[in-house]
Write a structure and sequence with these properties.
The chain is an alpha+beta fold. The protein has one domain: Glutaredoxin (3-Layer(aba) Sandwich), CATH 3.40.30. Helices cover 46% and strands 12% of the residues. The protein contains 4 helices and 5 strands. A 5-stranded mixed beta sheet has the order 1-5-4-2-3, with helices on both faces. 20% of the residues are buried.
Length: 150
C-alpha cells in the first residue's frame, strides 16, 4: 500500500513538473516572439560558421517536400535580387554563455515551419521573400540600402 502511494505521488509530481515546464516554455516563446522586429525576425546568437553578411536559408536540401521546395525558391529569388544567400540543411549554435531566454528564442524559431531564414543575427521561420528582403536591406551592416536599384 505504501509503495502504491509512493508511485502515485511520483506520477503526480512528474505530471505537474511536465505541465509546469510546458507552461514556462510557452511563456518564454511568446516573450521571444514579442521581441520580433517589424519584419518578424527575432534576435539570435550567431550560428557557428555563418557569415553575418549572408542570408542563410535552412531546410532539407534536394528534398521533394513542399517546405524544402519553398526554401529552394526563396534562395533562388534572393540570389536573383543580388542578395548573398547560402542554402543549407543545418545550423548550429555554441552553448557557452547562453541563458534560458536565448535557448527559448532559438527553440521558438527552430521548431517553426520551414524554411528558417537567418539575416544579420536575426531569424524567422517561413518568411516571405518580401520579409527577407526588407530585413536584409534594413539590418545594420547591410550596404544594400546604399546601392541604387536600377
Amino acid at each position: 500500500m505504501n509503495f502504491a502511494r509512493f508511485l502515485l505521488f511520483v506520477a503526480a509530481a512528474g505530471i505537474g513538473l511536465y505541465y509546469w515546464h510546458q507552461h514556462q516554455a510557452a511563456v518564454a516563446i511568446s516573450t521571444a516572439m514579442a521581441t520580433a522586429d517589424a519584419n518578424g525576425f527575432v534576435d539570435l546568437p550567431p550560428a557557428r560558421g555563418q557569415n553575418p553578411e549572408t542570408v542563410y536559408v535552412v531546410a532539407a536540401v534536394n528534398c521533394p517536400h513542399e517546405a524544402a521546395q519553398r526554401a529552394d525558391r526563396l534562395a533562388k529569388d534572393l540570389d536573383d535580387k543580388g542578395i548573398p544567400v547560402v542554402r543549407t540543411n543545418n545550423v548550429g549554435f555554441t552553448a557557452v554563455g547562453v541563458d534560458q531566454s536565448t535557448v527559448d528564442r532559438i527553440r521558438a524559431i527552430m521548431d517553426g515551419p520551414l524554411p528558417i531564414v537567418f539575416v544579420h543575427g536575426r531569424a524567422k521561420s517561413a518568411p516571405s521573400l518580401e520579409d527577407v528582403e526588407a530585413e536584409f536591406r534594413s539590418s545594420p551592416g547591410s550596404d544594400a540600402q546604399e546601392k541604387p536599384q536600377y
